Amino acid sequence: MTTGASMSGVAAVVQSDSELEAQLRTSRAALRSIGSLGDHYATVLLGQDDPYPVYEKLRRRGPLQQSRLGTWIITGRSLADEVLRDRRFGRRTTQGEWPAGYSDFDNSFLAMDPPDHGRLRRLAMPLFSPRAVGRLRAEVERACTDLLDKVGGDGSFDVMTDFAAQVPLTVIAAVFGIPEQWRERFSRLAEKVALVLAGVAQPAEVHAMREGVAGMNELFRDIIELRRREPGEDLVSRLIGDVDGELLTADELVAMCGMLSLAGTETTVHLIGNGVLAMLDAPEQWDLLCGDVDLAAGAVEETLRFDASVQIQSRYAHSDIELAGKRVKKDAQLVMLTGACNRDPEVWADPGVFRLGRRDEAEHISFSSGIHYCVGAPLARLEGEVALRMLAERFPRLRRDGEVVRRVSPFIRGLRSLPVRGD
């Protein structure tokens, strides 16, 4: 997972809506100007309904190239994997800071470098192990069943609002021990905090993001206090014993819960939506899944490769480094365009085609790689597999039934609306 738009931290340095609007407008004008000079990465940052043609233009210039913005761009899967595994590259600069323009919400271990990253990640990992996640299967199945039971008699519903957006919220609430009476509060805040990942383009979005961040932090402080009094089997309860000791502070636990809950909802929502859309646009693939629902796990992997929820991952060089025959200077930013890397024709045959049953090809990098490999990957895979399986079982005749509305963001690839009929 990667955080933050290049403009998402602007709220910290402006004092009024008019100043903020001018700053955002200037930033977009600058990107358009640089893009008009043939800098395709600037075009990517403007947000595209379909970024894949732009990725192909970038790919033709080689697996590593430098944007006029100063950022190094990686479009090759092998090189991206190499950088993600190389300890000479980190999530922050050598000063341990985010460069200007990044949201400060992601102060969790996901955005840290060693040794703090390892200290905090080790605390969370047992709670997201395959065995621990496997115990959540019944919760995921119950959530999917309840939501699909509400679909109207004619089988008309919106995959995103009526299903995909609800499943991860229900499951994450259980993982973090969010009481039933606070789940609507969590849902509202999660929608606002999602702008941390997607980026902002309007002053209203900046305000919403800031309110969401503050509210989410407050919510998890309330949950921590509740679980001190009433412990359960959830993540917060299990980690409270480490708070204020040598391993964990209360602020670190709040940050961990906030970002993990966001990562566990926003990205999984779009995993489900992107997978359904890809197969409805290739009906023979939907028919294959309906004919053998055991292909659902493979459908999740192909969705993650074909149309990843998170399109950009970034690292910073912690020293001057020779990479792919080029000199990358200390503290330079490197961006892996996940969507481009996952469609690398040197790795996958017909990479622009969604195909169930792919064999003997490299793993996608949608869950990153190396020490920052997504700790929540087992849970995302479980939720995606159960959701796609149950949709195929319930609605083998599913088809699109209206306009698909996309979220246009350079960082998050997903849908706002996917109307369908299943009768």
Which keywords apply here?
18 helices; alpha+beta; 12 strands; 423 residues; five-stranded mixed beta sheet; three-stranded antiparallel beta sheet; disordered N terminus
Task: Summarize the helices and strands and which ones pair or pack.
Layout: H1 17-36, H2 40-45, H3 52-59, E1 64-66, E2 72-74, H4 77-85, E3 89-90, H5 116-124, H6 130-134, H7 137-149, E4 156-158, H8 159-164, H9 167-175, H10 183-193, H11 195-198, H12 203-229, H13 235-240, H14 250-280, H15 283-291, H16 296-306, E5 312-317, E6 321-323, E7 326-328, E8 333-337, H17 338-341, H18 377-394, E9 399-400, E10 405-407, E11 414-417, E12 419-421
Parallel strand pairs: 2-8
Antiparallel strand pairs: 1-2, 3-5, 4-12, 5-8, 6-7, 9-12, 10-11
Task: State the gist of this model.
The chain is an alpha+beta fold and 423 residues long. Helices cover 49% and strands 9% of the residues. The protein has a five-stranded mixed beta sheet, with helices on both faces. A three-stranded antiparallel beta sheet has the order 4-12-9.
Share of helix, binned: 40-55%
Total number of helices: 18
Beta fraction of the residues? 5-15%
Task: Write the element-wise H/E pattern from the N-terminal end onward.
Answer: HHHEEHEHHHEHHHHHHHHHEEEEHHEEEE
Radius of gyration over C-alpha positions, nearest whole angstrom: 21 Å
Structural class: alpha+beta
Distance between the termini: 37 Å
Tell me the strand order in the biggest sheet.
1-2-8-5-3
The coarse overall form would be: globular
Q: Uncertain regions: pLDDT < 50 for 5+ in a row?
A: 1-15
Tell me about the biggest sheet?
A: 5 strands, mixed
Average pLDDT level: 88
Instruction: Tell me how many strands there are.
Output: 12
